[in-house]
Design a protein that fits this description.
The complex is a heterodimer of chains A (124) and B (150).
Chain A (H helix, E strand, L loop, with lengths): L3 H11 L3 E8 L4 E7 L6 H22 L7 E5 L3 E7 L8 E8 L5 H14 L3
Antiparallel strand pairs in A: 1-2, 1-5, 3-4, 4-5
Chain B lengths: L16 H6 L1 H14 L3 E8 L4 E6 L4 H21 L7 E6 L2 E8 L3 E7 L5 H28 L1
Antiparallel strand pairs in B: 1-2, 1-5, 3-4, 4-5
Helix pairs in contact in B: 2-4
Classes of the chains: A alpha+beta (124), B alpha+beta (150).
Chain lengths: 124, 150
C-alpha cells in the first residue's frame, strides 16, 4: 500500500519519460499531491483542467446511458502523452492520477501498465 | 468592526468616488467574462475593503449586504492571518452545504467575491478568481490613482 507521495514518486521513477504527475480530487478540481511539473506545465492548472475533462466524459456517458466506468483516458499531443487514470476502490472515490509523458521517451503500453499497478496499490 | 487595524487603506475620498465609478464598466466587464468562464458561478461582486459595492454581476443576491459582510469577514481574516504570522491576506474560501463563497484581494483597496454552486471546480475557481482579482485590482488602483492626481 502506497500513500500519495510514494505513489507519485513511484510513478515518476518506474514510468519512463514522466514530465509531471498529480493525484487530483475531481469533486473539487484540486490536487492532493503533485510531483515534477515546470513553468511550462503548471500542475494546478492541469488538475483543474483535467477535472473538467473527466467530468465531461462522465456526463457524456450518463447521457448516452452507459452504465459503465472510466478506466483511463489517453490524450496524445504532438510531443506528449497525457494519461488520466481513475482511482477505484471503496474509499478512493472521486480521484484520478494524472501523468504527463514525453512522447519521445515514453512507452505507452508500459506506462499504462505501471500506472494501473500504482493505482491498485494506492491508499489515500 | 473597526477597520483601522487593517493594512488596506481606501485612498479615495467621497468626492473621488465618481472617478472610481469610471472603472466600474471595465470591472463589470471582467465580472461578466468571469461568469462565462465559470458557468457554475451564481454571482460575482467587487467591493471596496470598507464594504461598498463597486460592481456586481449577480442575480438573487443582495449585493450591499454581501459586500458589507465581505468587509467584516476580511477584517477577521486579516487579523487571523497576521496573528498566526501567515503574512498578508490573500484569499478566503467558505464552503456551505449549498455552495461556496470565495474572496480574493484585488489590488490595495478592493476585493473580489465569488459565489459558486457546490458542484463548481474549486481548482478552476481559484485559477480564474486569482487571475481576475489581479486585473480588477489594477483597474481599481489605476482609477483611484487618477483620483488622487485630480
Amino acid at each position: 500500500m502506497a500513500n500519495t507521495e510514494t505513489a507519485l514518486k513511484e510513478a515518476s521513477t518506474s514510468i519512463e519519460g514522466v514530465i509531471g504527475a498529480a493525484l487530483v480530487d475531481y469533486t473539487s478540481g484540486m490536487a492532493l499531491g503533485t510531483l515534477g511539473g515546470s513553468k511550462d506545465l503548471d500542475l494546478s492548472v492541469a488538475a483543474a483542467g483535467n477535472t473538467d475533462v473527466v467530468r465531461a466524459k462522465l456526463r457524456t456517458m450518463e447521457m448516452l446511458g452507459l452504465k459503465d466506468e472510466i478506466e483511463d483516458i489517453l490524450i496524445s499531443l504532438g510531443s506528449q502523452y497525457h494519461l488520466i487514470r481513475l482511482i477505484k476502490g471503496r474509499n478512493n472515490n472521486g480521484l484520478f492520477l494524472y501523468v504527463a509523458l514525453d512522447k519521445g521517451r515514453a512507452n505507452l503500453a508500459m506506462a499504462r501498465h505501471q500506472l494501473k499497478r500504482i493505482e491498485a496499490s494506492l491508499e489515500v | 468592526m473597526k477597520c483601522t487595524r487593517m493594512k488596506f487603506t481606501a485612498p479615495w475620498k467621497r468626492a473621488g468616488r465618481r472617478q472610481l465609478m469610471a472603472a466600474e464598466a471595465d470591472v463589470l466587464g471582467e465580472l461578466r467574462r468571469l461568469r462565462t468562464r465559470i458557468p457554475q458561478l451564481r454571482g460575482a461582486l467587487t467591493a471596496s475593503v470598507d464594504g461598498l459595492v463597486l460592481a456586481q454581476d449577480a442575480t438573487d443576491i443582495e449585493a450591499e449586504g454581501v459586500c458589507a459582510l465581505t468587509a467584516a469577514a476580511l477584517g477577521v481574516a486579516l487579523r487571523l492571518s497576521e496573528a498566526t504570522h501567515q503574512g498578508g491576506f490573500r484569499e478566503l474560501l467558505i464552503r456551505g452545504e449549498q455552495g461556496y463563497v470565495a474572496t480574493y484581494t484585488a489590488g490595495s483597496s478592493a476585493v473580489l467575491t465569488l459565489l459558486a454552486e457546490p458542484r463548481v471546480n474549486v481548482g478552476r475557481l481559484h485559477l480564474e478568481g486569482r487571475r481576475s482579482s489581479v486585473l480588477i485590482g489594477e483597474l481599481v488602483d489605476a482609477s483611484t490613482g487618477r483620483t488622487e492626481d485630480a
